[in-house]
Design goal:
Layout (H helix, E strand, L loop, with lengths): L7 E5 L4 H12 L3 E6 L2 H15 L3 E5 L5 H9 L10 E4 L15 H29 L3 E5 L12 H20 L6 E7 L6 H5 L4 H7 L8 H12 L9 E4 L15
Parallel strand pairs: 1-2, 1-4, 2-3, 4-5, 5-6, 6-7
Length: 257
């Protein structure tokens, strides 16, 4: 098992859900965290909690990952003490709507494509070259069961997660011959702000997604990510699909009545 003490870990979408849970588990291992999100107040609150509980260092980046110029500027201008990034967790992502494709909202499409695909690409493009130069590093991409199985109304969201799967596989192939590791962690139902964001703040509709089911928690997913990043250096866990016991596929869910 690799020690993560003092390793520099970038976590996008760190202000809530899986990103926040990752921050806690990596902080517990003594890592130094670069926390990335659009909501600076949430990041600051998380950083204060982590500092108090684990006495670790954090560096905050208020950033929209879909803004390529902002991503480039933020990574290039990192202080020397924070620039040698060891682990990149591309967690930032979202879903918008459940419309049929021919009735879809193009603004929803663009937001999903810009965040889930372009944002992941931008962070990867500006961070991985340094990993290659230093001869160490690990990229963890948050995919989804939606990248493996399409479901009604999921069209564009599923396409973005299928892209994450393809990008992860392609990156692993492109990095062959280097010690850089690439992992895609692809969860099924996880109870986070995901459904609330998908339904534009409709909390009642979001609650129904998880009704009668014990979904995964953000901590469950963070635990798997932590496991992947702490294996022996010669071990690469390419892909993990994890789902609640009550879920058998993207659409097949057992609900307690």
């Amino acid at each position: 098992m690799i020690s993560l003490k003092n390793q520099i870990v970038v976590i996008t979408g760190a202000s809530s859900g899986i990103g926040s849970a990752c921050a806690r588990v990596f902080a517990g291992a003594g890592a130094k965290l670069i926390l990335v999100a659009r909501r600076l107040d949430r990041l600051q609150q998380l950083a204060d909690e982590l500092s108090k509980e684990f006495s670790i260092e954090t560096y905050l980046l208020q950033l929209d990952v879909s803004d390529r110029h902002a991503v480039e500027s933020s990574i290039i201008s990192l202080p020397p003490a924070w620039s040698a990034i060891d682990i990149l967790i591309n967690n930032a992502g979202l879903s918008r709507g459940l419309d049929k494709l021919h009735e879809g909202d193009w603004q929803n499409w663009e937001e999903m494509i810009d965040t889930n695909i372009k944002g992941l690409l931008y962070l990867t493009r500006y961070i991985v070259p340094g990993m290659v130069t230093r001869g160490r590093g690990h990229v963890v991409n948050l995919g989804s069961i939606a990248g493996h199985q399409t479901y009604p109304g999921g069209n564009v969201y599923c396409a973005t997660k299928a892209a994450v799967k393809a990008i992860s596989e392609g990156l692993k192939q492109d990095l062959l011959g280097t010690p850089i590791r690439v992992t895609s962690v692809d969860p099924g139902m996880v109870e986070t702000e995901f459904s609330e964001v998908r339904f534009h703040g409709d909390r009642e509709r979001a609650k129904k997604v998880y009704q009668g089911v014990q979904p995964l928690t953000p901590e469950d997913v963070a635990d798997v990510i932590f496991f992947c990043t702490t294996r022996s250096p010669h071990v690469n866990i390419n892909e993990v699909i994890l789902m609640p016991v009550d879920q058998a596929s993207a659409t097949l869910v057992h609900r307690q009545t």
